[in-house]
């Protein structure tokens, strides 16, 4: 049975060249659910230290759960379910019956579910925004508007078993076939051994909450102390120099998440906003080259906003504590770009009903936005009733100061995004479809409907920012940059345009898949952070004719002592001329900087803070899965018994032989020679 299983799953031409390969078939593309912790609890999934083993069971309907939770004769079960059954109802039943559940594998579909799916909560970042018992409590806790009505909260539950996501590919179909060949119940009769089983490894080192795991990090009982968790965080991307005394701040969220660790496409929740602002920044760079407006514009791309506003709360903290060139009191106003994928050719301008009461700047912002939409197909409207700001980075600024500002979104009240913070918030959701038979290079240049819509949004944003900053010239954007950015972030980052604008040491990290917008931990720069940094530098900076050595040492020439305080320099690959494979590299000078996006709670060591994010991610040693055929318990006991009997017989035989060795192995003595 085992050899047939290996042949089925591994295909022809692959020989069983080891004992392990004859027994196990390893899962190739598996994405785990991992454990996260905050000030009060832990969420996510984990396996036991040695991995969890269960008999495979393909769940065909919710009614079929009785076999797993009550009737099945061979628990625990490793449940395989399609995405249509990945619902709160099913998962809560599996969670409460976890003694009979060894793990869950969700098969990701090839297309998005029409009914929508969001594993986030109905009230994102509920306790970390501005609305609270001390700031208009009637607006707190989404009392007025449930922003994410489809949110089922699965991402914020704790599960005592491992959970993985698998692609719906040939390997997954072969696993299901293994189930139907060995485990499938026919006419109510129990399946016969051997049974198809699966083992999942995803043991997490951290437990309980952030305070506990950070305390364990500080225990040094050995020469190599073990770290069990790391703070979530990354770097914010800013243009933060050449600021005058009262700049305009334009900001947005750069990260996203989903239930599973390495799948966070964030097409609408993140990419639609930052692609819009990148395009607007490029247009404003061209408009302001000859004459700077009266007020400069600070661009801020915040990381970690999904987890209680990590990036924005850090910038506010730094501004408030004189650790940033700009003081918080000097921020003129804020324009935030949220989810702006256009559904009904309408953008909604949200303001805070509390701080707006005494602010004429808000009225000026709204007028500028409305005038910026002239001669475009889009219109801007304000909500017709008083409601709080939607989840947004601007709320963290309002917690510190009553700063004027607006948040631009594509929804009036509840989100129009049916896949908020899920694996389905992807290119398909933005209708990024391409005609058949296009080459990757042609797809990169093909202008989709999403690119056309976001170009208009970027035009409105650029015009409004320019007018608010004191400029007056009309601005019109082209589709091409938006098209290329959407393709690079949502289809594959390994494309010819991205290759040109990144340094050579980063080019090897570009992939033939969508970008993962999960924030990650503070030990490393994430792919979206670096891509946005390089894009913003190329779109807003200038090319300078200096050597690679001077460029990489952040100077114009050997005598330059000042530029590193104002500019950053980046040596990028450039394009290869026609009929050549050698790229022509060049240096880009810009005012783009990275600033730390780590929650102040970790600098202050306030791991139970209610003011700042306390999210951490558990460490792990091994993430893997494998399937194999398992014998019946009786056969296992018989095999064990025979093995023990052989061992005892061997020991007894060895003892007998050893005790009689002088007889069994003696040889006759030679007679000694007589001496006289």
Automatic annotation (TrEMBL):
SUPFAM superfamilies, per the entry: Zn-dependent exopeptidases (SSF53187)
Chain segments annotated as transmembrane: 637-657
Record-linked InterPro entries: Ncstrn_small, Nicastrin
Keywords, alphabetical: Glycoprotein, Membrane, Notch signaling pathway, Signal, Transmembrane, Transmembrane helix
Nicastrin small lobe domain ranges (all copies): 32-206
Single GO BP term: Notch receptor processing
One Pfam entry name: Nicastrin
Localization per Swiss-Prot or TrEMBL: Membrane
Keyword Transferase on entry: no
Protein name: Nicastrin
Gene: NCSTN
């Amino acid at each position: 049975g085992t050899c047939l299983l290996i042949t089925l799953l591994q295909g022809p031409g692959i020989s069983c060249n080891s004992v392990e390969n004859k027994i196990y078939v390893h899962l190739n593309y598996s994405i785990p659910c991992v454990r996260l912790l905050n000030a009060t609890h832990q969420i996510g999934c984990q396996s036991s230290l040695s991995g969890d083993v269960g008999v495979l069971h393909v769940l065909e309907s919710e009614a079929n759960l009785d076999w797993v939770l009550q009737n099945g004769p061979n628990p625990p079960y490793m449940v395989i379910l399609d995405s249509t059954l990945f619902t709160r109802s099913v998962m809560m039943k599996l969670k409460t019956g976890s003694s009979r559940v060894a793990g869950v594998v969700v098969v990701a579909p090839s297309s998005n579910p029409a009914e929508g799916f969001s594993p986030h909560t109905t009230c994102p970042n509920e306790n970390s925004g501005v609305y609270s018992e001390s700031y208009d409590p009637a607006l707190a806790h989404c009392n007025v508007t449930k922003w994410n009505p489809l949110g089922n909260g699965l991402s914020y539950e704790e599960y005592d078993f491992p959970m993985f996501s698998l692609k719906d590919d040939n390997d997954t179909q072969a696993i299901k076939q293994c189930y139907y060949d060995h485990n499938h119940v026919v006419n109510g009769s129990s399946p016969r051994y051997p049974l198809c089983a699966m083992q999942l490894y995803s043991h997490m080192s951290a437990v309980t909450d952030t305070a506990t795991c950070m305390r364990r990090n500080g225990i040094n009982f050995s020469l190599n102390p073990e770290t069990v968790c790391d703070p979530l965080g990354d770097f914010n991307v800013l243009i933060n120099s050449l600021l005058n005394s009262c700049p305009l701040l334009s900001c947005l969220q750069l990260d996203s998440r989903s239930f599973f660790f390495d799948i966070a496409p964030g097409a609408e929740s993140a990419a639609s906003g930052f692609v819009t602002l990148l395009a607007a920044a490029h247009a404003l760079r061209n408009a302001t080259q000859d004459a700077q407006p009266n007020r400069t514009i600070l661009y801020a791309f915040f990381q970690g906003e999904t987890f209680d506003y990590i990036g924005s709360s850090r910038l506010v903290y730094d501004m408030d504590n004189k650790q940033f060139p700009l003081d918080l009191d000097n921020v003129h106003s804020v324009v935030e770009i949220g989810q702006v994928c256009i559904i009904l050719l309408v953008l909604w301008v949200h303001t805070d009903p509390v701080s707006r009461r005494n602010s004429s700047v808000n009225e000026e912002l709204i007028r500028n936005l409305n005038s910026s939409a002239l001669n475009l197909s889009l219109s801007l409207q304000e909500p017709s009733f008083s409601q709080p700001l939607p989840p947004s980075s601007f709320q963290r600024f309002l917690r510190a100061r009553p700063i004027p500002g607006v948040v631009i979104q594509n929804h009036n009240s509840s989100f129009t995004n049916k896949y908020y913070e899920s694996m389905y918030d992807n290119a398909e959701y933005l209708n990024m479809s391409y005609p058949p038979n296009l080459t990757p290079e042609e797809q990169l240049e093909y202008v989709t409907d999403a690119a056309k819509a976001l170009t208009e949004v970027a035009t409105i944003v650029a015009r409004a920012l320019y007018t608010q900053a004191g400029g007056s010239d009309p601005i019109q954007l082209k589709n091409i940059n938006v098209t290329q950015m959407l393709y690079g972030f949502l289809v594959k980052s390994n494309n010819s345009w991205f290759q040109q604008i990144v340094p050579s040491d980063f080019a090897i990290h570009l992939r033939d898949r969508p970008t993962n917008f999960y924030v990650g931990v503070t030990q490393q720069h994430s792919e979206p952070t670096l891509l946005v940094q390089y894009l913003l530098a190329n779109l807003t900076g200038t090319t300078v004719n200096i050597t690679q050595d001077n460029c990489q040492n952040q100077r114009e020439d050997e005598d330059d002592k000042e530029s590193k305080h104002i500019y950053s320099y980046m040596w990028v690959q450039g394009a290869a001329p026609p009929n050549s494979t050698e790229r022509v590299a060049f240096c880009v000078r810009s005012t783009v900087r990275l600033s730390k996006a780590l929650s102040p709670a970790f600098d202050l060591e306030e791991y139970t803070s209610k003011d700042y994010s306390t999210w951490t991610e558990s460490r792990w040693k091994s993430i893997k899965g494998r399937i194999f055929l398992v014998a019946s318990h009786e056969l296992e006991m018989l095999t064990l018994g025979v093995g023990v009997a052989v061992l005892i017989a061997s020991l007894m035989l060895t003892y007998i032989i050893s005790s009689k060795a002088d007889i069994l192995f003696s040889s006759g003595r030679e007679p000694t020679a007589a001496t006289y």
